[in-house]
Every structure is written in structure tokens, then in C-alpha cells.
Amino acid sequence: MEFDKETQQTLLDGQRIEDFVKSPAWGLIKMKLTNKIMDLQSIMNVDPTNPEQAILDLKARMMCVSTLLEWLREVEGAAEQHSTNQTIINEEYLIQI
Q1: Residue 37 dihedral angles phi and psi, to the nearest 5°
Q2: What range does the domain containing 76 cover?
Q3: pLDDT at 24 (0 to 100)
Q4: DSSP string, 40-57
Q5: Per-residue b/e over 29-49, b at no fewer than 16 CB within 10 Å?
Q6: Is residue 96 part of a domain?
Q7: Number of C-alpha atoms within 13 angstroms, CB side, residue 52?
Q8: Rounded Cα–Cα distance for residues 75 and 72 (Å)
Q9: What is the mean pLDDT of residues 82-93?
Q10: d(C-alpha 44, C-alpha 8), whole Å
Q11: What is the rounded distance in angstroms from the CA atom of residue 97 to the CA atom of residue 94?
Q12: Euclidean distance between CA atoms 17 and 11, whole angstroms
């Protein structure tokens, strides 16, 4: 089945993401990033002497944690979506008009 250039590029990008997520490197990177996220969530390294600043620090940390977790989900979701798309393409479930 022939696809236009934009679709071909989307499929290529998806394949690259899927290959990376399946690689041992992704497991290592995800583990290191998860450890950093856990550090950000820890209140052990927040200075309790200034409660107002501590609250601001915690809010900023939560925003960072949220952003990083969202990014992890997006990357792994893109890999899963590509896998699903490939199954559909390979099984020729697409109807050409």
C-alpha cells in the first residue's frame, strides 16, 4: 500500500519511537528518569524553615513531576499506537478509496 510523504514520515517516526522504547536503552533511561521523579516528589530535601517558600517549591516540583510523567506516557503511548497501526496496515484492514 502506498502512502503520501506525510504519512510515510509519521510511520517512520512511529517506528523509530517503537524501536527505541523496545531497546534496553529505554529501560535504563526510564529507570533513571523515574528515580529523578521520585527525588522531586520527596519532601526530605525541602527547606522547612520558610513554609511559604517550601509550598512554592513543592508546587513547582509537582508541576515538573506531572510534566515528566506525561512525557513518559506520551512516548510509550506513541510506541504502542505505532504497533497497533502496523498491525492494521500489515493485515490490510485499511480500505482504499
Answers
A1: -60, -45
A2: 5-90
A3: 95
A4: HH-STTS-TTSHHHHHHH
A5: eeeeeeeebeebeeeeeeeee
A6: no
A7: 0
A8: 5
A9: 78
A10: 48
A11: 10
A12: 10
Residue 11: closest CA among 97, 91, 95, 90: 90
Residue 36 lies in a domain: yes
Give the pLDDT band of residue 87 (cuts 50, 70, 90). confident
Q: Which amino acid is at 25?
A: A
pLDDT digits (tens, 9 = 90+) for 5-42: 998 899 899 999 999 999 999 999 999 999 999 999 88
Phi and psi for 14 in degrees, rounded to 5?
Answer: -60, -40
18 Cβ neighbours under 8 A, 6+ residues apart: 78, 79, 82, 83
pLDDT tens, position by position, 45-65:
888 899 999 999 999 999 999
- Number of structural domains (the chain) is 1
Residue type, 63: M
Is 97 within a domain?
no
- Per-residue pLDDT at 94 exceeds 70: no
